[in-house]
Write a structure and sequence with these properties.
heterodimer, A: Rossmann fold, 8 helices, B: alpha/beta, Rossmann fold, 29% strand, globular, transport (chain A), ETF_b (chain A), Acryloyl-CoA reductase electron transfer subunit gamma (chain A), electron transfer activity (chain A)
């Protein structure tokens, strides 16, 4: 039986490679100085979604929220075999915390319509909160199955999965629809398919088309540019190369619940803890050094 | 969405498995006690489960005043929907001002679901909590005695302090092992309040088929001294040097993810963001470069000794003593220096 599958993906700054240049003097992060990547565990969520579709049939819709540049990760989804891609982009969604983000994503999933499965990575590497998956499940009113390590099977509208519990595992069953968060140990994401890369590298969201038109035809009037944008978008749609672009109005979002006004948590202070190299006592790698070190640890009572 | 209730209690979610409270709950009891005293309110604990006799008394001994017990055979094993309903109902009824959860697999599954349903703020993986007056920089309004929720973010590169002005309760998960566990006081008195919550069968959609939980065999959290090896150790064979030093010094054996991935040692020894968080009196890191994920799990150690051939390895940024050299040569020297003392 074919299933309707949604996968939530996020473009994130590559926090594993933060250097001195990416930290500002006030301890905040200069996100612009960091390369962006496909959130690692979301790639595993995508793979789980694609495997499920390949096994039982159905469609995979990739959904992301972010600036127009986040269309990059949606193209990556198309390269790997996603059937549809939707970008939720809206300035009014900026500064959303996990509660507001999950509200917006859940509204978007509802707007997609029928779904049997929602997949998401366990957590994103910029926040490491692991909250958006469970919060989305609550907003959708569906069962959540976190820390997916293996989707055993689906039978009679009931899914059986193995969850990683940290100190062990459990196999559980739940009726559809469900939202699953996926661990990086669940699978090995497939590489992009060359044929699909050739095709979908031309896929665009409307905001990207608009930016391209703006730089291509600086002389034209606003109206002429708008006409050109619609024309190009029309062509992309005919070729199946249009990535849908939605805003908060398209998903019927209550604006009070989005962005800053929908976010209970506020960042009060940020301090940099990386690369603030304070001095340490250097000990020579010799027998004398070893003796001296042990001696010091005894004197300061670290060693009893 | 609940308004701030400044008379509200400070709560701990009492995670238990098969009638055993997890260590982080006992750690949180001490913290909740301290926060409650600062705020001049009572400390409470929410204890759902089945066959949980005796746990209430233990929570009280660790600093809790009011234990809210919800007993139901269907609550024997955790599942999100029903546990979430229990916690949300009790929050609704008693309006606590703070709710703390352990940042365990279970806590990180449950807490966001509760936060979503109550539309409260939620901060994951805190490493410290404080009570302070905070001025909202936008409105200049002073919010008295807020919970500062302090956590590493951005891959461990920054420490962010999060507050929640007015969508209460203020909720956070707290990393295991970061709050010191206080000694229990068996003579403390407190109240056990049995709560009756209607739980519809639809709140139990998940059916448990099979479960395999391995008890933690390695007690890293309780160790006073830890000797840890990383990818730089090179092989399972060389990792014996780590075991030897640990034996000589009377410490436990830890490892970085690289050492675990390299197959030098089992995952139960892993320290760091995805392993155990430790804060021993002495931490010796040999052949560990010190990726942020590893540092996040050990940088609170009272004394850190780093041994690495690369003088630019980030581990030195958190070290008190640094030895630039080959651990294969340095560790035996430390072992003999220790033996000389006897």
């Amino acid at each position: 039986m074919p299933y309707d599958i949604v996968v939530l993906v996020k473009q994130v700054p590559d926090t594993a490679h933060v250097t001195v240049d990416t930290m500002r003097a006030d301890g905040t992060v200069n996100r612009g100085a960091l390369p962006t990547i496909f959130n690692p565990e979301d790639l595993h969520a995508l793979e789980s979604a694609l495997e499920l579709r390949d096994r039982y049939g159905g469609t995979v819709t990739a959904l992301s929220m972010g600036p127009p540049k986040a269309a990059d990760v949606l193209r990556e989804c198309l390269y790997r075999g996603a059937d549809h891609a939707i970008l939720l982009t809206d300035r009014r969604a900026a500064a959303s915390d996990t509660l507001a983000t999950s509200y917006i994503l859940a509204q978007a999933v509802k707007a997609i319509g029928k779904y049997d499965f929602v997949f998401a990575g366990r957590q994103a590497i910029d926040g490491d909160t692991a909250q958006v998956g469970p919060q989305c499940a609550e907003k959708l009113g569906v069962t959540q199955l976190t820390y997916l390590e293996e989707l055993v099977h689906v039978k009679d509208n009931v899914v059986r999965v193995r969850r990683n519990l940290g100190n062990g595992w459990e196999i559980v069953e739940a009726p559809l629809p469900v939202l699953l968060t996926v661990m990086d140990t669940a699978n090995k994401p497939r590489p992009p398919a060359a044929r699909k890369v050739l095709r979908f590298k031309h896929a665009r969201v409307e905001a990207e088309v608009a930016a391209e038109v703006k730089s291509d035809s600086k002389e034209s009037s606003k109206e002429e540019q708008a006409t050109e944008v619609s024309r190009r978008c029309e062509v992309l749609r005919d070729q199946g190369l249009s990535i849908e672009q939605w805003n908060l109005d398209d998903i019927g979002a209550d604006l009070e619940r989005c962005g800053l006004s929908g976010s209970p948590t506020k960042v009060f202070r940020v301090q940099s803890i990386v690369l603030t190299k304070e001095g340490y006592t250097e000990i020579a790698p010799t027998e004398e050094g070893a003796r001296q070190l042990i001696q010091e640890l005894v004197i300061d009572r670290t060693l009893g | 969405m609940n308004e701030p209730n400044r008379q509200g209690e400070v709560w701990v979610f009492a995670e238990q498995e098969d009638g055993v409270l997890s260590d982080v709950v006992l750690e949180l009891c001490g913290k909740a006690r301290q926060l409650a005293d600062e705020l001049g309110v009572k400390a409470g604990a929410v204890l759902p489960g089945s066959d949980i006799d005796g746990l209430s008394q233990k929570l009280i001994a660790y600093g809790i005043d009011h234990v809210y017990v919800v007993e139901d055979t269907r609550l024997a094993h955790f599942q999100t929907s029903s546990y979430s309903r229990v916690v949300c109902s009790l929050i609704d009824k008693h309006q606590p001002q703070i709710v703390l959860y352990g940042a365990t697999s279970l806590g990180r599954d449950l807490a966001p679901r509760v936060a979503s349903e109550t539309r409260a703020g939620m901060t994951a993986d805190c490493t410290d909590l404080e009570i302070k007056d905070v001025t909202d920089p936008r409105t200049k309004q002073v919010h008295e005695k807020l919970l500062l929720q302090i956590r590493p973010a951005f891959g461990g590169n920054i420490v962010a302090t999060i507050v929640n002005y007015d969508w209460w309760p203020q909720m956070a998960t707290v990393r295991e092992g970061v709050m010191p566990m206080q000694d229990p006081d068996e003579s403390r008195s407190g109240a056990t309040i049995v709560e009756d919550i209607e739980l519809d069968d639809s709140l139990f959609p998940v059916k448990l088929i099979e479960r395999c939980v391995e008890p933690r065999t390695v007690n890293l959290k309780g160790a006073r001294v830890i000797v840890a090896g990383g990818g730089g150790v090179g092989s399972r064979d060389s990792f014996k040097l780590i075991h030897e030093l640990a034996g000589a010094i009377g410490g436990a054996v830890g490892a970085s993810r690289a050492a675990v991935d390299g197959g030098f040692i089992g995952k139960e020894h892993q320290i760091g963001q995805t392993g155990t968080t430790v804060r021993p009196a002495l931490y010796i890191a040999a052949g560990i470069s010190g990726a942020v994920q590893h540092r996040a799990g050990m940088e609170e150690s009272a004394k850190i000794i780093a041994i690495n051939t690369d003088p630019d390895a980030p581990i030195f940024s958190v070290a008190h003593y640094g030895i630039v050299g080959d651990m294969k040569k340095v560790l035996p020297m430390l072992v003999s220096a220790l033996k000389e003392r006897r």
